[in-house]
């Protein structure tokens, strides 16, 4: 059966590119008309990557088709093919040249050819990478005003895409509603409606429209593709995996479609499925992206040494403009998980270097800073942990939260920088707003550890221990996990009562509380014995009174 331009466009809309190309090439070959050459060139302009870029090879094919279309009538070259040639200029980066050509074409057609003006407007919204949405809207609206029979949904679809580039979801939805009212291309229109809501993070509404698109045409692959992205955003990875597979099955099983499936499967954490399909095309695929994909998958699967080789291969073979910040981040993650004790120090260093590059390049897909900190923690390099946390807090847009400050103070404690720990615990206490009491204990300890062998005759940590006791709830006091901290607090305050306030009765009360919470508190026992024996315990030394913690005043362990 003879194929028509509309058959080709239906396949193009559904991203069945092989089928569409076959139809357009056959039409141009068997019936070399201006229209058929135009749509062959138009097909190649729509072969864009995820960044909206058309390859130089496809731009050349488009140019060749449009040139043939204009050559059919040397005296009056077909205006649509002239628009096509100007669009090639636009997508090649020659905006000024394209604009001059578009203006001349409109002048030559006396600004009265609706299809010409529409295609000029569409050219400005065809690519997410090279575009001018304001020009697109102006021209498409002018074309709509010229239309005698307003039955072409493509005008409104192109306008919606322009508004999507402008991130104007309301205007995009209005344009799509106008397109939907014509009762044509509903699967494409509903999918675009879903994309508007998805871009606006209205995920439930987006899901509804994607499902409506599938109901309108169960073979429409793009709807399954966006559903997979949506479910990945939700964290519903099983559903994401199912729809990724359906997107592959409903499209053509070309290498390009398989690559797209691999990306979807990877995002939905179906690493085995992604790797299986990647291995099918790996040897034949020329695009170095195969190395990136394989390296990413291998990192997630823990095959880290091989991952390093593949990601490095991608960085070596791909043009620099194709490098992503996440490439360096994933390379750093791969180095971090290599099981090679002999080279662990080197691998850890390379891991940190590459993750720092990812941070510097602005990759926010992974908590690289947290991974670097954990690396330093595993090596017990607490000064580096503190350094990283300080940098994170100072550069974070929101600043550090209570947990960040507590972890920083803890790193200072383990680094033996007790003065800084004391200061930072104050900030953590302020941010926790008494929802967690342990920082009071830690700040009290930091004050004592900072003294070393010096006797703190004023018992400067006393207000912190008092606050810990008075603000703690009955439930906190009843929790056995907190018993040693209450014993510590009462023991310290008991020393103060005895040595500073000269109040044996109060000291006895506090020490009894200390023993109530921890009967093994030997220092509390010793103080009670000295009080009962009429003697005063020694003030000074490396333990009491300045270090009355449950572990006998020992500094924190690494």
UniProtKB/TrEMBL annotation:
TPR repeats lie at residues 187-220, 402-435. SUPFAM superfamilies: HCP-like. One of its GO terms (cellular component) is extracellular exosome. It comes from the Bacteria. Residues 529-558 are annotated as: Disordered. PANTHER family: CILIA- AND FLAGELLA-ASSOCIATED PROTEIN 70. This is Tetratricopeptide repeat protein. It comes from Emticicia aquatilis.
